[in-house]
Amino acid sequence: MEPRIDLMQHELGGKLAKRMFAVHMLVQQTGLPPATQNLVMLRASQINGCGNCIDMHAKEAAAEGETATRLNLVAGWRHSTVFTEEEQAALAMTEEATRLADASEGVSDETWARAAKYYDENQLIGLVTLIAMINASNRMAVTLNQLGGSYEPGLMTAAVDG
């Protein structure tokens, strides 16, 4: 399988990627903890089968100090002891919001209330936006056959800053 288009080498694609990254930068200003953001992006990418994004977000999280144990257990977070209640609430929201087609009600009131117990409105806006953006990124990367395995931490930041 070969990549179909390299967004960063395409004029319009590069502009779109930079705008999407700019939204991510705004999410960082919401107060949603960076570790939670990394877990959310990794979990949505796992659900969507996006090797490129799994590679990127696991490596970025590790570079920011995330442990291998926690990264290895993200897919099985419900059956592990290494995530805080706050992180579990964010992961539950991530799964329900990512699997909209699988869950007729979308994000349940129970899941929303659980997240609202730990996150203020700015953080909830950040969480919902982050989930939406990583799902869009996953869909783009999978459609364009962007492959995982060769990502180096900091590459995305360098690409959009360049």
Name the quaternary structure.
single chain
- Unreliable stretches: none
CATH architecture classification: Up-down Bundle
Number of strands: 0
User: What is the number of domains?
Assistant: 1
Order of helices and strands: HHHHHHHH
Helix content: 55-70%
Shape: globular
Radius of gyration: 15 Å
Describe the largest sheet. none
CATH class: Mainly Alpha
CATH superfamily, called what?
A: AhpD-like
Structure description:
The chain is an all-alpha fold and 162 residues long. The protein has a single domain, classed as AhpD-like (Up-down Bundle), CATH 1.20.1290.10. It has eight helices and no strands. Helix 2 packs parallel to helix 5 and helix 5 packs across helix 7. This is Carboxymuconolactone decarboxylase family protein. InterPro entries: AhpD-like, AhpD_core, CMD-like. GO terms for molecular function: peroxiredoxin activity.
Sum up the structure in keywords.
mainly alpha; CMD-like; AhpD-like; 162 residues; peroxiredoxin activity; globular; AhpD_core; single chain
List the helices and strands and how they pair.
Layout: H1 11-27, H2 34-48, H3 51-63, H4 68-73, H5 85-98, H6 109-118, H7 121-143, H8 155-161
Helix pairs in contact: 1-7, 1-8, 2-3, 2-5, 2-7, 5-6, 5-7
